[in-house]
Amino acid sequence: MCEANAYMVKDGEETLLMESVDLVEPEADGTFRLVGIFGDQITIKGKIRRMNLVDHRILFEP
Amino acid sequence: MCEANAYMVKDGEETLLMESVDLVEPEADGTFRLVGIFGDQITIKGKIRRMNLVDHRILFEP
């Protein structure tokens, strides 16, 4: 499986937001909807900083 | 390997932009830099519409 983990990077520190993210979708209000492989969902305020697919990492920043 | 293919969706049609994308990074000018697993790079004008990691698909729109 090729899901990724999503992190928030703030002041150089990474905080895990969600594991096993399948779907990333921008919403109209500027947030991002993240859906996990089991259907769990969270909404992220922030913007994408970098995605490393081979490393399974999605980094957001405030 | 968990790279993805990047597509541009316009008028309901998908055009392949790049295969085997490893890195996706927003640039200061609003474009996205895509780097493939072999180090090849392209720059995309557009915004992210959806990413399906399990399906290995990154969709951009104008």
The percent of residues in helical segments of chain A reads: under 10%
Strand content of chain A: over 45%
Largest sheet of chain A: 6 strands, mixed
Alpha carbon gyration radius of chain A: 11 Å
What is the end-to-end distance of chain A?
A: 28 Å
Q: Which parts of chain A are unreliable, with pLDDT below 50 for 5 consecutive residues or more?
A: none
Shape of chain A: globular
Number of helices of chain A: 0
Structural class from helices and strands of chain A? Answer: mainly beta
Care to count the β-strands of chain A? 6
Order of helices and strands of chain A: EEEEEE
Q: Give the mean pLDDT of chain A.
A: 95
**Assembly state:** homodimer
Widest sheet: strand ordering of chain A: 4-3-2-1-6-5
Protein name (chains A, B): RNA-binding protein
InterPro entries (chains A, B): CooT
Organism (chains A, B): Desulfosarcina alkanivorans
Characterise this structure.
- Two copies of one chain form a homodimer.
- The mean pLDDT of chain A is 95.
- Chain A has no helices and six strands.
- Chain A has 62 residues and is mostly beta strands.
- In chain A, strands 4-3-2-1-6-5 form a six-stranded mixed beta sheet, with no helix packed on it.
- The relative contact order of chain A is 0.32.
- Chain A has a domain at 4-46.
- Chain A has strands at residues 4-10, 13-26, 32-36, 41-44, 47-52, 57-61.
- At the A-B interface, β2 and β5 of A face β2 and β5 of B.
- Chains A, B: It comes from Desulfosarcina alkanivorans.
- Chains A, B: Pfam families: CooT.
- Chains A, B: This is RNA-binding protein.
